[in-house]
Amino acid sequence: MNPVFSALTPVVLLIALGFFAARRGWIAAGAVKDLSNLVFLLLTPALLFRTMSKVQVQQLDFRPVAAYFLAVIVIFAGTLLVCGFNRRAAVLALSTTFGNTVMIGTPLVSLAWGEPGLVTLFTLYTVHTTVLLTSATLVLELAVMHEDSASGAAAPRHPLAAVLTALRNALAHPVPLPIIAALLFAQTGLAIPTVLDRPLELLGNAFAPVALILVGVTLASTALGTHWRGALALSAVKNLLHPLLVVAAGWLLGLSGVPLAVMVVVASLPIGANVFLFSQRYRVAEDLITASVGLSTVLALGTVALVLAATTLL
Predict the structure, then answer these.
(1) DSSP string over the chain
(2) pTM for the whole thing?
(3) Could you report the per-residue pLDDT of 220-272, keeping only the tens digit for each?
(4) How many other CB atoms are found less than 10 A from the CB of residue 76?
(5) Within 13 Å, how many C-alpha atoms sit on residue 236's CB side?
(6) What is the pLDDT of residues 63-106, one digit of tens each?
(7) Which of 19, 48, 226, 248 is the most core-located residue (most Cβ within 10 A)?
């Protein structure tokens, strides 16, 4: 079976199941907030902590990752410049840079390049979620303070105090906190006791299906006709512009072969479900992000195949 099709089909089907369940009335619209809290506050931290608790950072080669993040910086900063410094712009910037790397990336890279590709991919995993979600959280917290100050909802603060407060809120966030704690734990050389590891594994395994079903549930009440242009624009940036910029950054850094190819394909992956959870948590652009996650995933059946074929030229 085509590796792109086999990797993306489960994602599309899980979103479709959530959509169907909501339309049938099996999951009420009022349950979305509770399901979102379940995923964001329980399943996500379990997955992140268990995944990052085995990482020995000093053994990894970060040159391909540098190419990946050069492209991320260009897109993230460019989105903030175009859309302004606010919560909406921060969530849109995250949507155009944060892909579904774990659920789709792992089987796709494994089928395409085997162990050499997975080593490069797992190197990216050590910093992908940490850097992107922590940075996005920090920007979002600063944006919230800026909006509150501009509206008079909160007294203006000294810029340094605002940054420190935002940094504190970002580090205490349910996404960066388990990552940082896990990385610190990993450097001790200890292993998670089996009695704790097994429940963490079960919770982590539940993340992807529940998060994607939740996207489908929300998609059922989203007017795609209103948001399809915006969703198409975000999908084009994530699925096509991001990998193109990674190619340029990779050539700039002198990369080639499998390491560069893996980074390019990962950059082309559709928008990750974590972006949807951020839009829910900060109550901004929820309908647009929901539509974009669904559309980006469907379009990826073609765009990822195109990018994968193009990597033979690298």
Answers:
(1) --HHHHHHHHHHHHHHHHHHHHHTTSS-GGGHHHHHHHIIIIIHHHHHHHHHTT--GGG---HHHHHHHHHHHHHHHHHHHHH-SSHHHHHHHHHTT-B-IIIIIHHHHHHHHHHHHHHHHHHHHHHHHHHHHHHHHHHHHHHHHHHHHHHTSS----HHHHHHHHHHHHHTSTTHHHHHHHHHHHTTT----HHHHHHHHHHHHHHHHHHHHHHHHHHHTS-HHHHHHHHHHHHHIIIIIHHHHHHHHHHHTT--HHHHHHHHHHHTSPBPHHHHHHHHHHTSSHHHHHHHHHHHHHHHHHHHHHHHHHGGG-
(2) 0.76
(3) 877 677 888 999 999 999 999 999 999 999 999 999 999 999 999 999 999 98
(4) 23
(5) 6
(6) 899 999 999 999 999 999 999 888 899 999 999 999 988 767 87
(7) 48
User: In the structure encoding, which two tokens stand for residue 51, read together?
Assistant: 């995944």
- Here the tokens at position 167 are 């940094």
Phi and psi (nearest 5°) for 104? -100, -40
What CATH number should be reported for the domain whose range is 3-313?
A: 1.20.1530.20
